[in-house]
Amino acid sequence: MGRPATLKHLLDSHFREYDSPEFKLKRAKCHHCDTELVNENPRKVRHLAQCDTYLDIMAELGKDNAITLKAKRLSSKQPALQMAKLDKGVKERFDKQATLAVIMGARLFSLFEEPYMKSFIQSVSGNTYTPPSSRKIGRK
């Protein structure tokens, strides 16, 4: 039995790295679908977990690895229920209150973009309210 492949080795076998005069950072090109992206491992993993050609090949070979397992988890998530939307006036009032809470509390504008805060707000509002982005808060 051989040593298990490292993530870097696994990713390097599915991408070709190259320099491009158009971009500052190195680029990578997927061997399966020719998608080009920044040569960073998290982006490569995300791409392969969504690359239909790669996933089809791995399924035909009957092979599972960290990436195919991630893809299965992503595809097996139950679809979100469609809830009623908030009235535009109510959303604007909530956005104003959220903006005041951030500014008056001297919090980061990105407070509502944190994953746990997003999850909390979605669970409390029943998926009806999406808080303002940091860009929107910054403009107010």
Written overview of the protein:
With 140 residues, this protein is mainly alpha-helical. The protein has 2 domains: 7-75, no CATH class; 88-139, no CATH class. It is 50% helix and 8% strand. It has 7 helices and 3 strands; from the N terminus they run H-E-E-E-H-H-H-H-H-H. A 3-stranded antiparallel sheet has the order 1-2-3, with helices on one face. Helix 2 (41-50) crosses helix 4. The longest helix is centred in the C-terminal third of the chain and has 17 residues, at 88-104. It is elongated and about 55 Å long. It starts with 6 loop residues before the first helix and ends with a helix. The model has no long low-confidence stretch (mean pLDDT 83).
Strand adjacency order, main sheet: 1-2-3
Provide the β-strand percentage band. 5-15%
Mean pLDDT: 83
Poorly predicted ranges: none
Question: What is the topological layout?
Answer:
Blueprint: H1 7-12, E1 15-18, E2 27-30, E3 36-38, H2 41-50, H3 52-61, H4 66-75, H5 88-104, H6 115-125, H7 134-139
Antiparallel strand pairs: 1-2, 2-3
Helix pairs in contact: 2-4
Supply the key terms.
50% helix, 2 domains, 7 helices, mainly alpha, 140 residues
Quick take:
This protein has 140 residues and is mainly alpha-helical.
